[in-house]
Amino acid sequence: MTALGITVALLVWVTALLCAFLWKQMYSSRKLPPGPFPLPIVGNVLQLELNNIPKSFTRLAERFGPVFTLYLGSNRVVVLHGYQAVKEVLLQHKNEFSGRGEYHVYRAHKHQGITFNNGPTWKETRRSALTILRDFGMGKEGNEARIQREIPFLLDALRKTNGQPFDPTFVVGSAPCNVIADILFRKRFDYEDRTSLRLQTLFNENLYLISTPWLLLHNSFPSFLNCLPGSHRKVMKNVSELKDYALARLKEHQQSLAPSCPRDFTDCLLMEMEKEKYKAEPGYNLDNIAATVADLFFAGTVTTSATLKYGLLVLMKHPEVEEKLHEEIDRVIGPNRIPSIKDKLEMPYMDAVVHEIQRFTNLLPSNLNHEATQDTVFRGYIIPKGTVLIPTLDSLLFDKQEFPDPDKFKPEHFLDEKGKFKYSDYFKAFSAGKRVCVGEGLARMELFLFFTAILQHFNLKSLVDPKDIDLTPIVNGFASIPPDYKLCLLPRSQA
């Protein structure tokens, strides 16, 4: 065959492939929500701003409406944008869309645990975990006592900075780390403990890396990019190290387990494993328990830690808000008493500020991926089983009608005309429905008590003029990662 003949044959072959792709695309998407036309192989990845996925989703929602379809590689994704669409998916269709979209860097968990589990065990694992967590005080008086016990250690560590500039990452991170460690292992770490610092480093590193453009690409093209070097390998290594840590704690607990007197969450799950060991298909084994414990340790530390870190930066940017908080704290609590949750009833401004910090910093803007567990009719469209759904949380938290000037930090978003705390159903920072954050009650309690305790004893001092503080996240993908910074804490009596 001549060179011309080979060229013509190749052109015919490529044209045939493109025609087949276009026909398949048009046929398969005829009952799906609208969306931008995908390119072969890459889908719509090139049409997204990879370093700011939430912004891309907002722009596409303005063009295609609150429910639209994207293709990330060959993966079909339906994005929900706005209060009504997100609420319908999370609450009205909570069973049909309760699956968990794939996160390939967490394959070490093998569809086990809670957060990234999309296997047959997720419902039972989550149900058991919630029951045990309630028994150990999740969101109740038991956890308030845990947090209050940790407050003096946090304040002591902050005093040791002696008013000098410091990075708050590990100091404020150690407090929620110790609270969840007490629930899981009946253990607390010194604030300079190497193991604790190592674990927090892994937590923070993973939250940052899975929010970067490379990890979005890896999740879209796992078969190809898995063979290449990149930060996905670091995440997978970190996930394995965290799971190994959890597994080591499990084995220690097994050696001293007293079924009549469980000490912590880990003991309770080991007891469940013992009960099920004679079943034909036991729901628990050491791998599943280790993944569950690792999930809770990660989520219970890093989300609260990041919110505390971001919140302190926001308050330095708005010294007028900090001043009002000091006045309320002095009036309700005074200088010495450890804050309690009942104080929240008399501290509407602090309550509003904590909610506004969570709204404004927008920690998980696009939520965790959901997945359709069956073919489902939704708003007249057919969402096939296995389709990934992204119910965006930032579209609620930044709704212009519910929160006027949503891009501005305004505690008044959560206050009525009389200065009382005002609840908003648009506040879904912890998601909702079947996959709502299992630690929501604990996190809410920690944020109120830790912020209150810090501001009870310290004035925040920025190293730059407040108007020059940049609140822009350094990465805005899976999570909105706060920028690194240093600050000084001045004891209130010396400020």
UniProtKB/TrEMBL annotation:
The keyword Lipid metabolism applies. A cytochrome P450 monooxygenase involved in the metabolism of fatty acids. Mechanistically, uses molecular oxygen inserting one oxygen atom into a substrate, and reducing the second into a water molecule, with two electrons provided by NADPH via cytochrome P450 reductase (NADPH--hemoprotein reductase). Catalyzes the hydroxylation of carbon-hydrogen bonds. Hydroxylates fatty acids specifically at the omega-1 position displaying the highest catalytic activity for saturated fatty acids. May be involved in the oxidative metabolism of xenobiotics. It is found in: Endoplasmic reticulum membrane; Microsome membrane; Mitochondrion inner membrane. Its EC number is 1.14.13.n7, 1.14.14.1. GO terms for biological process: 4-nitrophenol metabolic process; epoxygenase P450 pathway; lipid hydroxylation; monoterpenoid metabolic process; response to bacterium; steroid metabolic process; xenobiotic metabolic process. Its cofactor is heme. This is Cytochrome P450 2E1. Keywords: Endoplasmic reticulum, Fatty acid metabolism, Heme, Iron, Lipid metabolism, Membrane, Metal-binding, Microsome, Mitochondrion, Mitochondrion inner membrane, Monooxygenase, NADP, Oxidoreductase. Belongs to the cytochrome P450 family. It is an enzyme of class 1 (oxidoreductase). PANTHER family: CYTOCHROME P450 2E1, CYTOCHROME P450 508A4-RELATED. It is a peripheral membrane protein. Heme binds at residue 437. Pathway: Lipid metabolism; fatty acid metabolism. GO terms for molecular function: 4-nitrophenol 2-monooxygenase activity; arachidonate epoxygenase activity; enzyme binding; heme binding; Hsp70 protein binding; Hsp90 protein binding; iron ion binding; long-chain fatty acid omega-1 hydroxylase activity. It catalyses: (5Z,8Z,11Z)-eicosatrienoate + reduced [NADPH--hemoprotein reductase] + O2 = 19-hydroxy-(5Z,8Z,11Z)-eicosatrienoate + oxidized [NADPH--hemoprotein reductase] + H2O + H(+); an organic molecule + reduced [NADPH--hemoprotein reductase] + O2 = an alcohol + oxidized [NADPH--hemoprotein reductase] + H2O + H(+); tetradecanoate + reduced [NADPH--hemoprotein reductase] + O2 = 13-hydroxytetradecanoate + oxidized [NADPH--hemoprotein reductase] + H2O + H(+); (4Z,7Z,10Z,13Z,16Z,19Z)-docosahexaenoate + reduced [NADPH--hemoprotein reductase] + O2 = 21-hydroxy-(4Z,7Z,10Z,13Z,16Z,19Z)-docosahexaenoate + oxidized [NADPH--hemoprotein reductase] + H2O + H(+). Gene3D superfamilies: Cytochrome P450 (1.10.630.10). The gene is CYP2E1. One of its GO terms (cellular component) is endoplasmic reticulum membrane. It comes from Myotis lucifugus (Little brown bat). SUPFAM superfamilies: Cytochrome P450 (SSF48264). The keyword Signal does not apply. It holds the Pfam family p450. The omega-1 hydroxylase activity is stimulated by cytochrome b5. Interacts with chaperones HSP70 and HSP90; this interaction is required for initial targeting to mitochondria.
